[in-house]
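Our collaborator T.R. sent over the components below with a one-line note: 'Predict the complex.' Nothing else. No constraints on interfaces, no templates requested, no preferences about which chain binds where. So this is a plain run: every listed entity goes in together, and whatever single assembly comes back becomes the starting point for the next discussion.
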Amino acid sequence: MSVKTFSIDGQIISAKEGQTILEAARDAGIFIPTLCHFTGLTNVGACRLCVVEIGNSPKLQPACTTKVIEGMEVKVNTERLKEYRKLILELLFAERNHQCSVCVANGNCELQNLAIKLGIDHVRFEFRYQNYPVDISHELFGIDHNRCILCTRCVRVCDEIEGAHTWDVAFRGANAIVITDMNQPWGESESCTSCGKCVLVCPTGALFKRGVSVAELQKDKSHLEFLIQAKVKKQWIR
Amino acid sequence: MEAVEKKEKVEQKQDNRLKFLNAALKRNLYQPDSLIEILHTAQELFGYLSKETLEYITRELKLPPSKVYGVATFYNFFSLKPKGEHTCIVCMGTACYVKGAAELLSEMEKFLNIKAGETTKDGKISIATARCIGTCGSAPAVIYDNQVAAYQTKESVIQKLKEWL
Amino acid sequence: MDLAELLEIAEKERRRKKPIEIHCCVAASCVSSNSQSVKDKLSELLSNTDLKDRVEVVGVGCMGLCSKGPLLRNSVTNEFYCHVNLDNVSEVLKDIQGQKARIEKLKIDDPFYRKQMHIVLENSGKIDPESIESYIAEGGYLTLYQVLHEMTPQEVIDEITKSGLRGRGGAGYPTGLKWSLVAKSQAEKKFVVCNADEGDPGAFMDRSVLESDPHKILEGMIIAAYAVGAQQGYIYIRGEYPLAISRLQNAIKQARKYGLLGTQIFESNFDFKIDIRIGAGAFVCGEETALMQSIEGKRGTPYPRPPYPAEYGLWGYPTLINNVETFANVVPIIRNGSEWFSKIGTEKSKGTKVFALAGKVKKTGLIEVPMGITLREIVEEIGGGVPDGGKIKAVQTGGPSGGCIPASKLDTPVDYESLISLGSMMGSGGMIVMDDKTNMVEVARFFMEFSKDESCGKCIPCRAGTYEIHNILTKIIEREATQDDFEKLKLLCQVVKDTSLCGLGQSAPNPVLSTIMNFEEEYTSLLKKDT
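Returned assembly:
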């Protein structure tokens, strides 16, 4: 496998052929924010937080789906990108109800962590205060659509790793929601194996274990990461 | 006696519709990627996509139910609720909009006391909007039960609705 | 079928024709004004006269001037009869009989037609779209024969490249380059897709071409498939176009019967099939990756490019996607040569462009003009200007992805680059004229409402951004917005434009940005003053 050399913010990086900018950056310890990406799942380029500047092209490209090309000059931390990322996160915060103080994932939430890291102290848009349902018909888990950011990690992990394809996205645009089977209560889903992978990959408090209270939700992803390693890289022994 | 006959006729008709749906499935070799084609056929046959219809298609095409539901709700053409006896679609394309389509619609909404996308309580009339039906030369246009009518006015639309009621 | 048989069909068709034909438009716009009954009535009237052996009423495709429809044409005098209905159709008969008739007539040198140039529409309104023989009589499928028997795939691609043809779907990517990319991709299967998901409100060029001359698209697609080495084609067409769908189905059936589709086309070793895929009401499916998802029976959500469809398209195979109008240019280019084509238009934009002219203008309908013509010529000369003495304020091109060009810039020549420099774009060809009564902020909101409703919801900037842009525009219209909101609007538009996943999101802010660029005072005059 040949090696590709390129630069991120002036720093020279070597990447394996076929690696994405995001993978190469993470290997080199360079931070690029992401929400819809989850190592081992198909990248969909949906959250747009990882968009980067390449060369002099005015077009931004998502780091998660763009493969490294020899000699490319990538910028991941320009003022423009920082401003854009903040705005995108603010759009998310205004869209549904992300009040951390009453969330099971408080203190253990990727959305919250990212907001802190990117320095968001207020949201420039009016909160929409939409009233989404909470489904706790499943005996082990629950879903609070108010916390969902439509990253579709649950859809992908269920299809690609568990192989059940219980989850999918229904409707479209601002009305889009994730559903189980025929948009029936989760507890009545026949395809769900209750494996809990969707809960583990959920970046926010949208999918949670029942019985946990505010700020109590811990998502130990190590077992899931092991499973994905086994499936993708055929490595069953850690 | 008559009622029984009528009921049988209705059932007969439904059986035929299922036959047509099966023919469409067969024609498409039960390929999962023919889902949208099949939904089109089902919508045409039954007027809408009931939960039972979706489940039937799910089974025949061997697809996950959430995927079928996701596709059926993505496209505007598919309706998961039954429509009215008559449908009236107001074109809201730019040319029609410039020529006052929005006023036509609000006139109808007021007259029937429903909003676009809804059906009157008695199930008689549904009104809906379309994203440009491509007859911009004769704007504003309205489709009454699949018939395109050109140069509509507030008077002409109400006239037509009155005929249906 | 071989060449002799093709020529025989053409000859037979020409002999069958009666000396005088009355062309009656049976495309969607005239059909909605009852042209089908007009046609039947005229045929009936004729059958009772001694003219019946010399005159025939033929249903044809669009003749362009939809606002004067139902439109009929006399093939000998080349005059049009306007606004024909069941009451005055007898006057048409009188005119054919050489009597004095009371009906509005229009000559072919009317300003509406004078500056037009018909390449894509060469057969529209002249042939019977339901009859393959009618198309063959005009030289149809002869080009395909020549391509299959006298040209190599590379020669076909070279001709298209040299002609300078660019994609007519809106972005203007060089067609020859696209074809050569697909041709170069190595794979066991390749596809050719015709994008007929014409979703821009106010645009109906593709519908009209498909309804008027469906075989031309088929022939263009078959030639493209031969050039790139594809075996299967799809036409992805909007469900809103039932007439175009049925004409295409009919055309495919006829072509199959004559051996022009299927195996060993024209007794060569080339096989190609075309199937129709009907859209289900989602604007975003006009975006090529979403379109392919939809053909595969999935939700029409776009995915990031690269990889481009030329390498990784339908089911992962190399796929050539061109728009209807692009395919319609293929046959004329091969038939007349790339040199002929490259002399039409401007330096960077060759050939003609079909526009759907609509809105506040006297004559609305379908026009085809050489690139480089000015907007003023289109709107004032062809369209006849604003009715009722109103003044032009702006011309909107490119639909929800385009922008509003102010009246002061009407002398701009129409080509890809100059429209972009004005904050608009060529788009697929919708052109809406707006008069001085139009409120530009409302126009921007109209398009934003469209984009918001048509956003697939996959990426955040488009899903939530279009909602917030629409929100601020509403606030401005209701005079509730401040300068701060206005600044936020501008930033938001920039973010949505730069970060959205697909073309829909990236171009959604254009109507707002272009109206801010050209009509900023309309926004600022609505803002609340800080107290």
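Summary for T.R.: The interface with chain A takes residues 282, 299, 303-304, 306, 452-461, 463-465, 467-468, 471, 488, 491-492, 495, 498-501 of chain C (CB under 8 Å).
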